[in-house]
C-alpha cells in the first residue's frame, strides 16, 4: 500500500513538473493575422523585467507628447522615413509597436514599413495606449495630459429626439456599473462600465455617433476622454440625472 501511495505521489509530482515546463515554454506572443501580438500583462512584465526590445509608439507626435508608455520611442506612420534611424541596427531585434487600440491601424502600418525595411521580429500590442492607461500601468505624462476638455453634450430633449428619429445613427452607452444599469437605464442603451471602457470599446462602431452617459457626468467624462484617445470621430455626452429630472422614463433589466 505504501509503495502504491509513493507511486501515486511520484506521478503527481512528475505531472506538476511537466506542467511547469510546458508553462515556461509557452510563447510570449500570440499569432494573429500578419503580425504576432502581445497582451497588456505580458508587455508590462517585459518592461518590468527590463527585457531587451524596442517599444514603438505609432501614434502622432502630438499624442506621444501628451502621454506614452514608459520607454517608448515615437515613430508616427507618416514620419517613418524621418525616424527609421531610431530602430535598432540589428534587423532581427524584437520590436513591439502600439497605437490607440484594436481599431487603430497605425501600429500595423508602421510595422509593415519596418518589415519592408528588413526588420523581421515585429510584434503588435493591440490594446494600445487607452487600455494600458485604463489598467493603471506606468506612463510618461506631458504637461497637457491633465488638461480639462470640453465635451459636446446633448440635453434631455435633444437626446430624446435623437433616440426617436435618428437612433440608427448613434450608439447610446451607459457607463455606470452593471447593477446600476439593471436598476434603471435609458431605453436602447448598452452597458460598458467606465473602468473597463477602453478594453471593451471594440463593440462600438466608428462610423456612428457614440453617446456616453452616467448619473452625474464624472464617469461619462472619463469614457468620453477614452473615446477621444481611441480616435472616435463623433462623441457626445448626456447626463442621466437631467434625463430623469425632465420626466423621461428609464427601464430596468435583469442582472
Question: Brief description of this entry?
Answer:
With 255 residues, the protein is of the alpha/beta class. The chain has helices at residues 2-25, 40-48, 61-66, 80-83, 106-116, 128-134, 156-165, 178-183, 218-229, 240-245; strands spanning 30-32, 35-37, 54-57, 67-69, 73-74, 95-98, 122-125, 139-141, 170-174, 190-191, 209-214, 235-239.
Which SSEs are present, and which pair or pack?
Elements: H1 2-25, E1 30-32, E2 35-37, H2 40-48, E3 54-57, H3 61-66, E4 67-69, E5 73-74, H4 80-83, E6 95-98, H5 106-116, E7 122-125, H6 128-134, E8 139-141, H7 156-165, E9 170-174, H8 178-183, E10 190-191, E11 209-214, H9 218-229, E12 235-239, H10 240-245
Organism: Geomonas oryzisoli
Domain Rhodanese: 49-141, 166-252
Pfam family, one: Rhodanese
List keywords for this structure.
255 residues; alpha/beta; Oxidized Rhodanese, domain 1; six-stranded mixed sheet; 10 helices; 17% strand
Notes on the protein architecture:
Residues 49-141, 166-252 form the Rhodanese domain. Keywords: Signal. It comes from Geomonas oryzisoli. InterPro entries: GlpE_sulfurtransferase, Rhodanese-like_dom. The protein has 2 domains: 28-141, Rhodanese-like domain (Oxidized Rhodanese, domain 1), CATH 3.40.250.10; 156-245, Oxidized Rhodanese, domain 1 (3-Layer(aba) Sandwich). The chain is elongated and about 65 Å long. It contains 10 helices and 12 strands. Mean pLDDT is 90; it is low at 1-26. By secondary structure, it is of the alpha/beta class.
